[in-house]
Amino acid sequence: MLNRWQALDSWLSDHQALWKPVPFYTPHPDWANVYPELYRALRGLSAEECAALQKNETVTTELLSRWLPGLKQRSWLLEGFLADECELQALDCVLSENQAPHMPERKRVQAGLLASRLQPLSQPITDWCSGMGHLARTLAVASSQQVTGLEWNPQLVERGQQLIHQTRCPHQTRVTLQHQDVLQLQANTAQWPDSTHLVALHACGDLHRHLFHQAVKAGQKRISVVPCCYHLTADAHWHPLADATQRSALQGLSANEMRLAVQETVTAPQRVTEQREELNRWRLGYEALRQHLSRDTHYRFLPSSSVKQLQQGFPEFCHWAASQHGGSLPAQVDWPFWLNQGAQRYAQVQRDELLRHQFRRPLEVWLVLDYVLFLQEAGYQVSLQTFCSREISPRNLLIEAQRYVE
Ligand SMILES: C[S@@+](CC[C@H](N)C(=O)[O-])C[C@H]1O[C@@H](n2cnc3c(N)ncnc32)[C@H](O)[C@@H]1O
């Protein structure tokens, strides 16, 4: 695992000029001057070619390797961790719709596949950041164990309790959801869930990192974590956990740069994707208009906007955006022109992202291998594997750690 992390560390560092600039904010990335032919080839892709490449990272790697031979290493670096290599798994633990009427389909399959992968479950379980307890309920059915979900949002706890009572399944008497801020839990205190198997599905950034630190201190026997949203951290920069990773070539990586690891929306319904894309065209159209009026060529941050704003039309959206920037727009604006500018810019963004997205999964594996090494250094036997396909969830890396027993 250390060799793989080191190889990823050098490879990501060697190529950082290609993945650090965010295409949405950077119309003319510096790498375009170093690789002008690559830049032209990307920008020259038709809409159909671009859409086809977005769906197939391997073909994209082959294409881009013509200009960037180093990209060929990507498949070796990701061997074993590519989402689509995941073997078909037993679906035994996936709850039926009758057993889980209020669980979204994808979460039902996700939780079931994870529960299958975690067999045998031979200890009481703590579901860390349990939300409404979808995984906790699944684990209760998949085992004979007590399952305690810890969740910080009281509304989710209450809704989860209602679901437990509504289901009236005998196994559900073994599930409890507790209102708890997990960041307040410290190892070796009365509150710490000692002697339980700690399971976390999609606990974000600091929430899973706090789990690793405290669980290691507590000497937890078994830890199973599917991490998510690595960039959600109180620190402005990435801090490696393991001793072996302290000398990273990517020292000082910002939380914002870490965000690339989770930039994937394969699970969003088509309509949601289309609405999000339209909103992006509007945001870029407004930005082009703003730059033209202010003669300021630097991207100006705009607070996030809702797809509901699409109902109001592009001019209204631009007036809203200008007010967010403390300004206003002239009475006469050629709206179709600026909307077209936004569409053109967004087409460029999509093409440049084909290149940037080549580094998305490698960055994620690099981040996760640091956790694996940290756990190994603490005396755990650790495996890292995908537990479901990318379509079920792109955040599908499962870290399984068992403490060596002397
Ligand atoms: C991405 S959701 C995952 C929920 C659930 N594990 C699942 O997979 O459906 C992350 C959950 O962490 C909860 N959370 C956020 N901060 C927390 C904290 N400090 N303590 C406990 N839970 C927290 C959120 O309310 C949310 O329910």
Description:
There is one protein chain. The chain has 406 residues and is of the alpha/beta class. It has 2 domains: 2-76 and 269-358, no CATH class; 84-265 and 361-403, Rossmann fold, CATH 3.40.50. It contains 16 helices and 7 strands. Strand 4 (197-204), helix 11 (205-218) and strand 5 form a beta-alpha-beta unit. The mean pLDDT is 92. Bound molecules: S-adenosylmethionine (SAM). S-adenosylmethionine is lined by residues 107, 129-131, 134-135, 150-153, 156, 181-183, 201-204, 207, 228. InterPro entries: Methyltranfer_dom, SAM-dependent_MTases_sf.
Per-chain topology:
Elements: H1 2-14, H2 16-19, H3 31-34, H4 36-43, H5 47-54, H6 57-65, H7 73-77, H8 105-117, E1 125-128, H9 134-141, E2 147-151, H10 154-167, E3 175-179, E4 197-204, H11 205-218, E5 222-228, H12 255-258, H13 270-294, H14 314-324, H15 335-356, H16 360-377, E6 380-386, E7 397-403
Parallel strand pairs: 1-2, 1-4, 2-3, 4-5
Antiparallel strand pairs: 5-7, 6-7
Helix pairs in contact: 1-16, 5-15, 8-9, 13-14, 13-15
The protein binds S-adenosylmethionine (SAM).
Structure, briefly:
By secondary structure, this protein is of the alpha/beta class. The chain folds into two domains: about 1-75 and about 270-360, no CATH class; about 85-265 and about 360-405, Rossmann fold (3-Layer(aba) Sandwich).
- Total helices: the number is 16
The helicity comes to 40-55%
Task: Let me know the average pLDDT.
Answer: 92
- Nearest-angstrom radius of gyration? 23 Å
Indicate the CATH class of the largest domain: Alpha Beta
Total individual domains: 2
| Biggest pleated-sheet summary | 7 strands, mixed
Strand order of the largest sheet: 3-2-1-4-5-7-6
GO biological process, one term: methylation
GO molecular function, one term: methyltransferase activity
Protein name: SAM-dependent methyltransferase
Organism: Nitrincola lacisaponensis
